[in-house]
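TEACHING EXERCISE
Course module: macromolecular assemblies
Task: Read the component lines below, then compare them to the predicted structure of the full complex.
Student: A.B.
Group: 4
Components provided:
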Amino acid sequence: MTDTQALPSFLLGPEDWSSAATLAVACGVFRPDVDEEQIADEKVSCYNCRYRRWLAKGISCLAECH
Amino acid sequence: MNILVCLDDTDNLESPGTGHLASLLVSQLEERGWGRGYYITRHQLLVHPDIPYTSHNSAMCFAVQLDEDCPPERLIEHAGSFLAEESAPGSDPGLCVAIPELLSDAEPLLAFGRAAKQQVLTKANAYALARQLGIHLSEHGGTGQGVVGALAGVGLRLSGNDGRMKGRLNFGSPGERRSVAELLADPLVDVVRSLDGQHPEATETVELGEKIKTVLLEGQSVLLLERTGDPAVSWRTCSRRQLKDY
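Instructor-supplied answer key:
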């Protein structure tokens, strides 16, 4: 999917496991990505969310509410 | 005849992933009696502002042992139609089908796979190499940008040293223990070894973690372990976090 126009409205580094879990638990739109794209051991984590987008230095969030 | 099939860029934010389509395609090929599919591997490609991707830029590759009476062209035609029909709206699907035994020199393909993890490559780059090597490469919707990842995914799978297995192995519940021999008995596990390359004895005990999967190393499906420091159970399976860079 061509989606280079999406602007990162939210960003975490690639190894901020604790913040990723805390933020996802508090987030109203967390949705687990397919199993093969999940990398965090915490079930609910921004790193495991379908709406995160990987960047060279971490992730942005594509959810409309962010 | 052994062939490699790779799909890329078939999804959008709301659709099933490319891995799901790869699983469906394997099932269809087997149901038609065209051959036997082997495990699917996920290959991470470069994420870069100049590369269009949905959220992670990974390709999905699998091997098929084709029956003698099934020409590769039949599989290619079916896979192309399948991608055109099943890929998500807005996606840019690409298909690559390679026959490793017909490659006179695989190194350019391996190099393309390595390069796709480190630099921005174009469709023109991909088509030129596919033509040079006699590899099938085709696009099935949108911009067709997925041909880059599809060709790269075949190169990475062929390298034998990239990617992790789609899905998970079911040895039991987290916290249960199994011997190394029991883990090796699974047909999807070729090797059991530690992250630092040690090979436990068949009788040693392993504590099961969650969502156990293998990675592709030296052409084999390898189940990685780490030491526990507990004399009662020497090893445990690696977590998703530990496998994220494979």
